[in-house]
Design brief:
By secondary structure, the protein is of the alpha+beta class. Among the domains are: 57-133, Roll (Ubiquitin-like (UB roll)), CATH 3.10.20.90; 223-281, no CATH class. Helices cover 27% and strands 12% of the residues. The chain is built from seven helices and seven strands; from the N terminus they run ααββαβββββαααα. β1 and β2 form a beta hairpin. α5 (231-244) packs antiparallel against α6 and α5 (231-244) packs across α7 (268-278). The protein is elongated and about 140 Å long.
């Protein structure tokens, strides 16, 4: 009640006051409250904004792509956000590179999926990727640089004098037997003798009678083929590589290199038996 009486008295005092101000009344500037003084603190300038080219160059990763069969080496500048399919397309644009659909990229023996990004595999800067080309791929012909020949003067030498009949040389071509893989002469191959050819300086060529008719090489299987197609041989090789390398990925990568290099001697059935025995499987079981 005391507060209510105080407010009532104050309102009555204001009502009897002689000062009446309009609704748009403003105080003069001299009666305005003073502003709080600001402290003079030196602020550092804002950092310069990098353009998109500098940011892209800072994120680029340089990769080296190598292929053993055929022996090829490529250098690519990619970004961590690039997909493996996009990297294959960049590689296919390089000279003498295989098409993107016939490429298979490996990193430490592990195949890289097309739909995944490069940063998902945690591949550092200046790394090396292994390139395996699918069998039956037609490689583009190597590019040849054509240089313009310098003009030259045609100088015709004088005609040669006829040679004496006693100075006509004779050349007899006779091949040597091909050595076997162990260094000895193969028992299944016989020496094929070619027809002796007599060459004269006047351009005439005469053929002598063949002393021995040619014989076709035997198609009997060799010990090398029997050993290279044996799953036990690859099992021993895989155990040896696991002892020599410190990590399983390095051993698997070395095993894949040996197997890819020997595919010319192996059939699809031989490869399937070897992978079932060893336990190393590539992309698609190849």
């Amino acid at each position: 009640m005391a507060d209510l009486e105080l407010v009532t008295q104050h309102i009555a005092l204001l009502a009897h006051s002689s000062q009446h101000r309009p609704n748009d009344h403003q105080l003069p500037l001299s009666q305005w409250p003073r502003k709080v003084p600001l402290l003079g603190i030196d602020l550092p300038p804002p950092p310069e904004r990098k353009n998109d080219a500098q940011v892209s160059a800072a994120q680029d990763i340089t990769l080296t792509v190598k292929s053993l069969k055929p022996a090829l080496t490529f250098t690519l500048a990619v970004q961590p956000t690039d997909s493996i399919q996009h990297i294959k397309a960049k590689l296919a644009a390089q000279p003498n590179a295989p098409p993107a659909d016939s490429q298979r990229l490996l990193y430490k023996g592990k195949a890289l999926a097309d739909a995944r990004l490069l940063k998902e595999y945690d591949i550092p800067q200046a790394s090396t990727l292994n390139l395996v080309i699918k069998p039956g791929t037609t490689m583009p012909a190597p590019e040849q640089t054509h240089t313009r020949a310098a003009p030259s003067l045609d100088v015709h030498p004088p005609p040669p004098e006829p040679a004496s009949p006693s100075l006509i040389p004779q050349v007899i071509l006779s091949p040597t037997p091909a050595p076997a893989r162990d260094g000895s002469r193969s028992p299944h191959r016989r020496t094929q003798s070619l027809t002796p050819v007599s060459l004269s300086l006047d351009g005439d060529t005469s053929f002598a009678a063949a002393s021995d008719p040619p014989h076709h090489a035997s198609t009997a299987p060799t010990t090398y083929h029997s050993t290279i197609t044996s799953p036990e041989f690859w099992k021993k090789l895989h155990d040896f590589l696991q002892k020599e390398f410190t990590t399983r990925e390095d051993a698997s990568s070395a095993f894949e290199e040996f197997l890819v290099a020997s595919k010319g001697e192996l059939s699809i059935t031989d490869i399937a038996k070897i992978r079932d025995t060893v336990g190393e499987f590539g992309m698609g079981g190849t």
